[in-house]
Design goal:
alpha/beta
Length: 364
């Protein structure tokens, strides 16, 4: 699709770094493994990165929506300052094409104005501080495609003591990955399945780049990492796949890596599929724990046991939850078990946050 009227003078258009010129006259975007090759006026699959004036630009800088103050647990992050509030926002566009996207009206949007608000980094930081947030979340669509905007917000936030959280599919190339995670404090990476077949058929991508992102975060950064896998009946919920996925996490990322199994609800292009039974999530949790993962959670259903954090040694409840609400706190001031003293992996304050389960839409 070409957009001949798009210029560097358009609001929201900024120049980018991760691209190269090709011998055939096209330019190649090197942010994600798609490596979209563009002629003048063309956009990549993500829609928000385009070729303008013989270079790759991002067209959604500051064009945001979905502003909401959420509990950090909604991201989901259960080991990153539990109970705290986080300002969430996103833009249009995504570099995957998941047929089960829960935010498809945003991620697949082809209208960059509409309900969007012009939100500078400074406006977002002011709103986060005024409303008592500890962190900012780049979410709803994938921050990979608006990384220049996200990084400016992250750096402005750090100057005021605010953390940055990426909610992402982890579908990136190496150089862009390094630049992005240099400024993130935590990430929840959506490991959508453990097979290339699933990624090709239902997401239009490949598994390996996601695994490389997970390995990079764990081995090369101090970013706090949690993983989410949405279980879709008869697609990625077999015992064999769950065994392989959880064994890989234990071996390559470590047994302390929190893993969230969440329930699928029919949406977008999979509206005819059944929703995930609670028994499937509980089975997945059992498999993960059997294979050595210390913190396996169930999401998108009422399951206080599967939503709570337990000591890996004495099994005392450390953070009792019912949905997004914190009901009990069993951590000492050092982030260890108040009973036996065993450290719990994560980032914890001396006392939990008190935001609760509220999700409050805001204006910035």
């Amino acid at each position: 699709m070409t957009h001949p009227l798009l210029t560097l003078n358009d609001p929201g258009v900024v120049t980018t770094q991760h691209w190269q010129r090709l011998a055939d006259g096209r330019v190649q975007c090197d942010v994600c493994p798609r490596a979209c090759r563009l002629r003048e006026g063309q956009r990549g699959l993500c829609f928000v990165r385009a070729r303008v004036a013989d270079q790759v630009v991002m067209t959604s800088y500051g064009r945001s929506y979905g502003f909401c103050i959420d509990p950090i647990e909604k991201k989901p992050l259960y080991h990153f300052y539990p109970g705290s509030a986080i300002l969430s926002f996103g833009t249009a566009g995504c570099n995957l094409a998941c047929k089960f996207c829960q935010n498809w009206h945003m991620s697949r949007s082809r209208a960059l104005d509409g309900q969007m608000v012009v939100a500078t980094p400074e406006r977002l930081i002011e709103a986060a501080r005024r409303l008592g947030c500890r962190s900012l979340a780049y979410t709803y669509n994938d921050p990979v495609v608006f990384m220049e905007y996200a990084l400016d917000v992250a750096q402005a936030g750090h100057a005021h003591g605010l953390h940055s959280v990426a909610v992402t599919a982890g579908y990136m190339q190496e150089a862009a990955r390094e630049a992005f995670y240099r400024h993130m404090d935590a990430a929840n990476v959506d490991l959508k399945a453990f097979s290339d077949r699933f990624y090709r058929r239902l997401c239009g991508g490949f598994l390996q780049p996601v695994l490389e992102t997970l390995l990079y975060i764990r081995q090369k950064t101090n970013v706090w990492l949690e993983i989410t896998t949405l279980l879709i009946p008869e697609e990625n919920d077999s015992d064999a796949e769950l065994e392989a996925l959880t064994q890989w996490i234990v071996e390559h990322l470590g047994p302390e890596t929190p893993l969230h199994f969440s329930a699928f609800h029919p949406t977008y292009r999979l509206q005819g599929r059944p929703q995930t039974p609670a028994a499937t999530l509980m089975r997945a949790r059992r498999i993960g724990r059997k294979n050595g993962l210390h913190h396996v959670y169930t999401g998108n259903l009422r399951d206080p046991e599967g939503g709570s954090t337990y000591c890996s040694r004495c099994h005392r409840p450390l953070v009792a939850r019912d949905g997004y609400a914190l009901l009990g706190w069993g951590l000492n001031e050092r982030g260890g078990c108040a009973g036996c003293g065993t450290a719990c992996a994560g980032r914890f304050a001396a006392v939990p946050g008190d935001w609760g389960a509220r999700c409050v839409p805001i204006r910035v």
